[in-house]
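lol ok so funny story. i was supposed to be doing the assay writeup but got distracted and ended up predicting the structure for this chain instead. priorities right. anyway since i did it might as well share w the group, maybe its usefull for someone
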Amino acid sequence: MRAYANGDSTMKQHAPQESCPCGTTQPYEACCGPYLSGELVAGTAEQLMRSRYCGFVYRNEDYLLTTWHPQTRPSRVRFDERQHWLGLSIRETHPGSDDDREAFVEFIARFKVNGKGHRLHENSRFKKIDGIWYYVNGEFL
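and the output, tada:
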């Protein structure tokens, strides 16, 4: 597996035993950490959604680009240094399991910019290519 270590010195670091930012009660190293490090590939669309959220929290551009569908992948991901991610809530996943080839994940991600709270409510579309899930695009709700 490929490691998705971002060489950017501004990448936010994590404490090994802190709870995963994706909203589970598991430590990051037992939850999304193995996906961002390249040890594992997300087995479901929801796992990929959660790990991509962590990719934004930790500003891991390599992981985000690698998990973006080749037809919609941008050339780079721009991060706002003023943006502080607060939490992720998965509203619905349809269907997105091992046997599916396309899935949708509705989520709300909360963040602050310059102390002002914001919510990103999106229905994200994922596709599976050769057994690997990719983020395709999203519709803001």
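DSSP finds three helices and four strands in the chain. The first strand starts at residue 83 and ends at 95.
back to the writeup now i swear
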